[in-house]
Write a structure and sequence with these properties.
With about 110 residues, the protein is an all-alpha fold. The protein is about 90% helix and about 0% strand. The chain contains two helices and no strands.
Length: about 110
C-alpha cells in the first residue's frame, strides 16, 4: 500500500470523526436548548427528552449523510463516464485533424511537382 494513500485515508477518517463529533455535540446542544423551553419537566424527564431528541437528530443526520454519499458516488460514476466519452471524442477529433492535415500536405506536395 502506498504511504501517501494510507495517509490520505487516515486524514479522511480523522476528518470524518471530527465532523461527526461536531454533529453529536450540536445535537446535544439543540436538545438542551429544546428542554430549556420546557421548565415543568423533572430532571429525569428532561434527560429522557434530551436523549430522544439527540437520537432523533443523529438518525436524521446519518440518513442525510448516507443519501449524500450515495448520490456523490453516483455522480462520480456519471462524471467519469462523461469524461471517458469526451476524451475519446477529443482523441478521435485529433486523429482526424492530423490525418486531414497530413492528407492536405501530401496533396499539395503532389500538386506542386
Amino acid at each position: 500500500m502506498d504511504p501517501d494513500e494510507d495517509t490520505a485515508r487516515g486524514l479522511a477518517q480523522l476528518q470524518g470523526y471530527l465532523l461527526w463529533s461536531a454533529e453529536v455535540e450540536e445535537a446535544r446542544s439543540r436538545a438542551a436548548r429544546f428542554t430549556d423551553g420546557l421548565p415543568w419537566l423533572t430532571t429525569a424527564q428532561r434527560e429522557d427528552v434530551e436523549r430522544a431528541y439527540t437520537a432523533d437528530r443523529l438518525a436524521a443526520s446519518r440518513a442525510a449523510l448516507t443519501r449524500i454519499a450515495t448520490r456523490s458516488t453516483a455522480l462520480r460514476g456519471e462524471y467519469e463516464a462523461r469524461y471517458r466519452r469526451l476524451r475519446t471524442r477529443c482523441v478521435a477529433t485529433g486523429v482526424v485533424l492530423v490525418g486531414a492535415a497530413g492528407g492536405t500536405c501530401a496533396a499539395l506536395a503532389l500538386l506542386s511537382r
